[in-house]
Amino acid sequence: MATGILPWQPRGVAALVNQDASEGNVHDRASRAVLLDRIASLLEQPLLAPMGADEAAKTNALLVPGDALEEGAATEAGIFDRSDILGGVVPAFFIGTKGIAHGLVDENAQRPQEWSFEMARLLGDAALPGYTAFSHSDAAKAGRLLLAKGPVRIKDVCGKAGLGQAVIRSEAELDAALALEDADDLARYGIVLEENLADVVTYSVGVVELGGETISYWGSQNLTTDHQGREVYAGSDLFVVRGGLAALAKLDLPEHVTQAVRCAAIFDRAAHAAYPDIILTRRNYDVIEGTDIHGDRRIGVLEQSWRVGGASGAEIAALEAFRAEPNTTQVRCSTVEVYDIVTLPAGATLYYQGVDPVVGAMTKYAMRYA
């Protein structure tokens, strides 16, 4: 490669796909295609066709999966180190979900073989009070403990865009919600029960390693209403710097942002310590700030995303700016998702515009603001 930006010599960039899984909604597929094209252009590499594990194992390409990969799947695709992937590799499926943000209700609780008790200990107050459960009985016990202190949010550990969540305020509501859960799914995936906050703001704190460059950022997530009247993700506004979370922490930031960055850094260190075999080149942490039942403001990590996601368009826009402007050290970039057909601002990169058969009319774009 002419620029010498990478220490390895890939022959392209490709989406790693699971041939047996759904490819997602039309807008997701279109956005992913644009994102891959931007990544390939940034690295000055050809964009290859999406490939499965067998083909990927024979190709020296940077692979971009849609989700964090379990180790077995990564090995099948020829992913062995950080230079092979934009995303994450985890020893077991649950490690890539919301499930590791909390501990178990007690030491005898049902859990996967790979579960680490160290994670919750290292997290300390960097996450909200809560539990992860892998059985109905453990979830019921955890829910009752939390209900004694106020409303509880139950979350599908695989839910995205704010979906798959419910707030319960009584034991009857708890039991009704848990009755809907399949025992086998609980044992494999788990379920999260945590303190519910009001008047919330959700921050994004992340790190991306791509093309020999490391960037980190803090930002806020925006919400909107979709065509079904649900409150869903509407994009992210990011303040991006060169370097990792340590560089971000050195900035003179507002106190609430400093705390969000601190919580994300604790989570990041805890995950690497508790699960040392993970490979992470794209990390995004959702950090919530809100008011608890007593009127006190609380802050903590909600979940991690170790895959390309909603903020990735803004991340790539920042990397493009840093590459074009070697002396620039800070940029502001955003992704925007609108459930309508709208006119794009000048300079925006269109990711999708049209009528998705599932979600309806939608416009998605990314841009640099400063």
How would the blueprint of this fold be written?
Elements: E1 13-16, H1 26-43, H2 53-56, E2 62-65, E3 69-70, H3 71-76, E4 88-90, H4 118-123, E5 130-133, H5 136-147, E6 152-156, E7 165-168, H6 171-179, H7 183-189, E8 191-195, E9 198-210, E10 213-225, E11 231-242, H8 245-249, H9 255-274, E12 279-280, E13 282-291, E14 297-305, H10 312-324, E15 330-338, E16 349-356, E17 360-368
Parallel strand pairs: 1-2, 3-4
Antiparallel strand pairs: 4-12, 5-8, 6-7, 6-8, 9-10, 9-13, 10-11, 11-15, 13-14, 15-17, 16-17
Give structural notes.
The protein has 370 residues and is α+β, with helices and mostly antiparallel strands. The chain contains 10 helices and 17 strands. It has an 8-stranded antiparallel β-sheet with strand order 14-13-9-10-11-15-17-16, with helices on both faces. Helix 5 packs antiparallel against helix 6. It starts with 12 loop residues before the first strand and ends with a strand.
- Residues in helices, as a percent range: 25-40%
Structural class: alpha+beta
How much of the sequence is in beta strands? Answer: 25-35%
The N- and C-terminal alpha carbons lie at a distance of 29 Å
Number of strands: 17
Low-pLDDT runs? 1-6
Output the radius of gyration: 20 Å
Q: Biggest sheet: strands, sense, closure?
A: 8 strands, antiparallel
**Which series of helices and strands comes N to C?**
EHHEEHEHEHEEHHEEEEHHEEEHEEE
Q: What coarse outline follows from CA principal-axis ratios?
A: globular
Mean pLDDT across residues:
93
Spatial strand sequence of the major β-sheet:
14-13-9-10-11-15-17-16
| Count of discrete alpha- or pi-helical segments spanning 4 or more residues | 10
